[in-house]
Structures are given as C-alpha cells and as structure tokens.
Design brief:
Helix content is about 25%, strand content about 25%. It is of the alpha/beta class and about 290 residues long. Strands 6-5-4-3-2-1-14-15 form an eight-stranded mixed β-sheet.
C-alpha cells in the first residue's frame, strides 16, 4: 500500500485436527490486555527462524510460528513477558523446524484456543522428531488441529479480520509451498504474513484475485530469491517489508536480488538480524515502528 505512514504510536494429527541474550530476544514491557484498541505485531528476533507475536485490537493473542527447537524456551519467555496466559490463535505455517521447533513449548506453557497448521500430502508428511513433538503436545492437551485453505476467514473480529490466502492445494512438492499465508486487516491498516511461501504461491494468490495491497509484508522464506517476485511485490505495494533472518546465516538470506527489488520499488526493509525485534503498533489508521537495535 503506497501511502504515507504517520508516526502514530504501530496427518493423523490433522484428523484430530541458545539463551535470550545470545539471540537478541529481549522482553518488552507488556501493555494492558485490551490495549485501548491498539494492535501490536512483534517480529521476534529468533535468529534464522520465524516467530511473530500479535496482540489483536480486542486483546486476544495470535502467535505465528515459534522459532527453532533450541529457542522454544526463549519464545515462551518473550510471550510471558507480555502478560499472556492464553494464546487464542496459534499458527504453525508449515512443518519445518525453524518455524515449529518451539511450538510444542508454546502449547505446553499456555492455554491454547485454536491451532492451525496446513494439511500436507502423504508423500510430504514429515517424520521428524520436531513434528512428532508438536503432535504429542497437541494430543496431550486434548487439542485439535484445523487445516485452513485459501479463502478461509479464520477471524472476523470487531473492526479486524484475518483471512488465509494460501495454501490453495494439498499436492505441492515442497513443504515451503504449504505455508499458511495470512492477511490481517485492522481498520485501514493491512499486514500480510507469508511464512515460507514461494513464487508458486505468490502467483496463485495473484491469479485468485485477492486484494493484497498491504502496508506491511513479511517476506516469504526469510528473503530468499525463491519468493518475493517483482510481480508480487508490485501487487502488494507495501510500505514496509520485514525479513526474519539470522545474522551471517549459511543460506545468505536475505538474497541480494530481493533487496534490490525492494529498493527499486522504494519499499522500506526491516530485518531482525540487523534491527533486532521489530514492533509495530497501529490504531487502525496509522502505524508506529520501533526497533530493538
């Protein structure tokens, strides 16, 4: 969304469907449970991983991904620092360790409302210990997993909505392509969270005719060149692109091609490796951005 942003404050399972200082995960002072109509989005610095904490305008909590296995305790500590006891909406975008590694910790430590994870094809169903740990945590708490699809509105709150834009299918050939992509709208402000969605998903979203004009875009796949195509960036037209990545990671994320695309389109880039935890607060009319570093 190309506009001026003012400085206001910012598988069977589906049937049952390091330290903080090391990673730079620093607790931030919690606000009141309702926040006076303010929505907060925290892109937590979790190294080469994703973990996004969201306090919705009515005080309910959404957590998208929870970092790696070795940072699960730090992610739960961060969430607790926000005065949270219940997570109303827990989303594991796709079953890769750098997204669901800490999910079992979160499930064990908090009261959980709804859990969303994608349904993957039999050939792609993970057999990793990480995935098994999540399923065990779900089972032990008597919870069920919901597998959303493109077009599902999973939250229809007072003045805000959360709509799933991907995955469209259940027969992709790469786990990243199953990523749950969510458009979160509050008032006139829009956030688009892409998980590790790839170029194929971006094309499906565009072809489906979704309105993806957005203020904040969490780039897919940590800023990899396999995502964030020029066509998608132009269509989304964000003011901010947020990249979750680790300093000096072995993948070279974010890739230079993606940074150049953002620069050419005059998109402001924020990165957890250089900016630390990034917090955005919005009253539904404007967004305020604060950075840890």
């Amino acid at each position: 969304m190309r506009k001026k942003v003012s400085a206001f404050l910012l598988a069977v399972a589906l049937l049952m469907l390091p330290s903080c200082d090391m990673l730079g995960i620093q607790p931030h002072t919690a606000v009141s449970s309702v926040s006076g109509g303010t929505m907060e989005v925290h892109f937590i610095d979790a190294g080469q991983a994703d973990a996004i904490f969201i306090r919705l305008p009515d005080g309910k909590i959404m957590q998208i991904d929870a970092g790696k296995n070795n940072t699960g305790d730090e992610i739960t500590k961060y969430i607790k620092s926000q005065g949270v006891e219940k997570i109303d909406y827990l989303i594991g975008t796709h079953p890769h360790e750098d997204h669901i590694g800490g999910l079992d910790n979160v499930i064990e430590e908090f009261e959980i409302g709804k859990i969303y994870m994608p349904r993957v094809s039999v050939s792609e169903t993970p057999t990793t210990q990480t995935y098994e740990d999540v399923l065990t945590a779900v089972k032990d708490k008597g919870l069920t997993i919901t597998a959303p699809h493109a077009g599902d509105v999973i939250i229809n709150g007072e003045g805000y909505t959360a709509e799933v834009l991907s995955p469209k299918r259940e027969d992709y050939t790469d786990l990243n392509e199953y990523s749950i992509a969510i458009k979160l709208t509050y008032g006139s402000e829009k956030f688009l969270f892409m998980g590790d969605a790839e170029a194929i998903n971006e094309r499906e979203i565009i072809d489906a005719g979704y309105d993806i004009d957005t203020d904040v875009l969490k780039l897919g796949h940590h800023g990899s060149s396999t995502s964030s195509t020029e066509a998608f960036l132009k269509k989304a037209s964000p003011d901010y692109a947020v990249i979750s990545c680790g300093m000096g990671n072995s993948y070279g994320h974010p890739h230079d091609e993606v940074l150049k695309r953002c620069n050419d389109l005059k998109i402001n880039v924020l990165r957890t490796d250089t900016d630390g935890t990034i917090i955005m607060r919005t009253d539904g009319e404007s967004i305020d951005v604060s950075k840890e570093k």
